[in-house]
Write a structure and sequence with these properties.
This protein is α+β, with helices and mostly antiparallel strands. Helices cover 34% and strands 26% of the residues. The strands form three sheets. Strands 9, 10, 11, 12, 13 and 14 form a six-stranded mixed β-sheet that branches. Strands 4, 5, 6, 7 and 8 form a five-stranded mixed β-sheet that branches. The model is unreliable at 8-23 and 41-58 (pLDDT under 50).
C-alpha cells in the first residue's frame, strides 16, 4: 500500500507539472488515500465488539512453576509448566488443580501428594492472601495406604508429611512471582458448606492441642530442593551408604551414562568408599539458572583403611527435569582420589 501511494503521488506530481489545474485534485486524492490508510490501521488494532464483551474464543498460555514431592524425601522439587487459562478460570484455580493432578510423566523424580478424590472447591484472592478450599478427601486415606492405616504410626507420620508437603506445594506455587504472599487452606464438601480450618494435629503428629489450626502460610523455602540441599542430601545418603536415596540425585554425564539402580548399588558397594565427615556451601547459581557450583570439604576412607581429604573442592550440579542433580562422573571423581 505504501509503495502504491508513493508511485501514485509521483505520477500525479509529473502530471501537475504540466497541468496546473489538476493540482487541487492531486491534494484531494492524496488526502483520501492517507485517510483510508489511517482508518484501516485503527480498525486492525481495535478490539471487536465481541472481544470487548469478553465473548471472543481465545486461549492464554501462561508459564508457571509447580512444586511436587521430590522422590521419597520431605522436600519439594519443581516442574515448569504451561497452563491454558480460559477466561472463566483464574490462574490460581488452574495452578491448584494441576498440583492435585500430579506432575507430568516426564518428571519421574517427582510425585503428587494429594489423595485421590481431592477436589478444588474454590480458590479466591483477597489482597495478598489466597483462600483455597479443598474437598474433605484431602484429609482422608493417603494413596497406597492399607485399610488400617490410621492404626499404624508409620502411616500416620506419612499422611501428616504428605499433607504438610501439599500445603507448602500450594503456598510455593501460588506465591511464585509474587502472585500472593500467603495461602489460607480450608476443607469443605461443596460450595454450600462453610469451609473449616485444618487442625494442626493432622499435619504434625506431635501436636496434641485440638484447638490449634492451620494459619495462613507464607512461602517456606526450607521445603524446596535448592542446590545446597541437593548436595547435602547426596552427602547424607553417601554417608549412610543408602544408594537408593542417592540415586534420584544422580544424572548422566556427557559421555558417562547413569547405570540402573541395581548396577549403581553394586558399583558403590564394590568401591567401598566411606564418607566420614563433610560440609557443603549453599552454592551459587549460573545466570541462566541451569547450573550451580558448590564447595565441598570432606573426609573419606577406603575399604583398606586409606584416608583422604577433600578440601574446598568445587562441585557442579545441573538441572535435570527442572531439579538439581550431580553427574555420575562427578560422584566418581569425589570417591576415587589420586
Amino acid at each position: 500500500m505504501k509503495k502504491t501511494l508513493i508511485c501514485l503521488l509521483l505520477a500525479l506530481a509529473l502530471v501537475a507539472a504540466f497541468e496546473p489545474h489538476v493540482r487541487g485534485r492531486i491534494t484531494e486524492m492524496a488526502s483520501g488515500l492517507l485517510a483510508q490508510r489511517e482508518e484501516r490501521a485503527r480498525t486492525d488494532d481495535a478490539p471487536t465488539f465481541s472481544q470487548q464483551l469478553g465473548g471472543a474464543s481465545r486461549t492464554d498460555l501462561l508459564d508457571v512453576t509447580l512444586y511436587f514431592r521430590f522422590a521419597d524425601t520431605g522436600l519439594l522439587g519443581a516442574q515448569r509448566a504451561q497452563l491454558d487459562i480460559r477466561r472463566e478460570e483464574t490462574v490460581a484455580t488452574s495452578i491448584v488443580q494441576r498440583l492435585i493432578d500430579g506432575p507430568d510423566i516426564a518428571h519421574e523424580r517427582l510425585s503428587g501428594v494429594f489423595p485421590q478424590g481431592t477436589r478444588v472447591i474454590s480458590v479466591t484472592g483477597e489482597g495478598a492472601i489466597a483462600f483455597v478450599t479443598l474437598s474433605g478427601s484431602f484429609l482422608g486415606r493417603p494413596d497406597g495406604a492399607p485399610a488400617d492405616w490410621e492404626d499404624l504410626p508409620e502411616w500416620q507420620e506419612e499422611a501428616a508429611l504428605r499433607r504438610r508437603l501439599a500445603v507448602q506445594s500450594i503456598a510455593l506455587s501460588l506465591t511464585e512471582d509474587g502472585r500472593f504472599q500467603r495461602v489460607q487452606l480450608y476443607v469443605a464438601e461443596n460450595d454450600d458448606e462453610i469451609p473449616q480450618r485444618i487442625p494442626m494435629a493432622l499435619l504434625d503428629t506431635g501436636v496434641t492441642d485440638p484447638a490449634l489450626v492451620l494459619a495462613a502460610c507464607p512461602r517456606d523455602e526450607q521445603a524446596m530442593l535448592t542446590p545446597g540441599r541437593a548436595l547435602e542430601m547426596a552427602m547424607q545418603a553417601w554417608q549412610a551408604q543408602d544408594w537408593a536415596a542417592l540415586y534420584p540425585l544422580m544424572a548422566d554425564a556427557e559421555d558417562d551414562l547413569l547405570p540402573t539402580l541395581s548396577v549403581f548399588e553394586t558399583e558403590m558397594a564394590e568401591l567401598g568408599i566411606s564418607l566420614l565427615a563433610y560440609s557443603v556451601s549453599s552454592g551459587t547459581v549460573s545466570f541462566d539458572g541451569q547450573t550451580a557450583t558448590l564447595v565441598l570439604d570432606a573426609e573419606i576412607r577406603s575399604r583398606d583403611g586409606g584416608d583422604a581429604q577433600i578440601v574446598r573442592e568445587s562441585v557442579p550440579l545441573r538441572r535435570v527435569q527442572d531439579n538439581w542433580a550431580m553427574d555420575i562422573g562427578t560422584l566418581r571423581s569425589l570417591m576415587i582420589r589420586d
